[in-house]
Write a structure and sequence with these properties.
Elements lengths: L1 H27 L1 H31 L5 H41 L1
């Protein structure tokens, strides 16, 4: 049993080594590297077009897209921050009003 495992391990290691050599050889070829670059650029352009078309479709059927959701989350976060600042200012005003009221009550 252990002989079969060691044979399998050796075959796997040899296969890995050969695949690595093949990949290195392919990537060192300028024509292959250029073809891979063109393919990746084309895929990126296609993804961009697909994303735009999906956003358009979702907008057409009045379904919010992830970007719409993200914008809403940003606006709600900004509103929450504004509310916190407003509460702080109101607390300060209330404290000053209480101080003035206490001063007037002493007179």
């Amino acid at each position: 049993m252990s002989e079969a495992k060691s044979m399998t391990a050796r075959l796997a290691a040899a296969s890995e080594e050969k695949l690595q050599e093949m990949a290195d050889e392919l990537l060192s070829n300028p024509r292959f590297a250029e073809a891979i670059g063109r393919t990746l650029r084309g895929a990126q352009q296609t993804k961009g077009k697909l994303d735009r078309n999906i956003r358009l479709l979702l907008n057409t059927v009045n379904v919010p897209a992830k970007a719409d959701y993200d914008d809403l989350v940003r606006k709600v976060t900004k509103l929450g921050d504004s509310m916190t600042k407003l509460e702080t200012r109101i607390d300060g005003l209330v404290a000053r009003l209480e101080k003035v009221t206490a001063t007037l009550a002493k007179r």
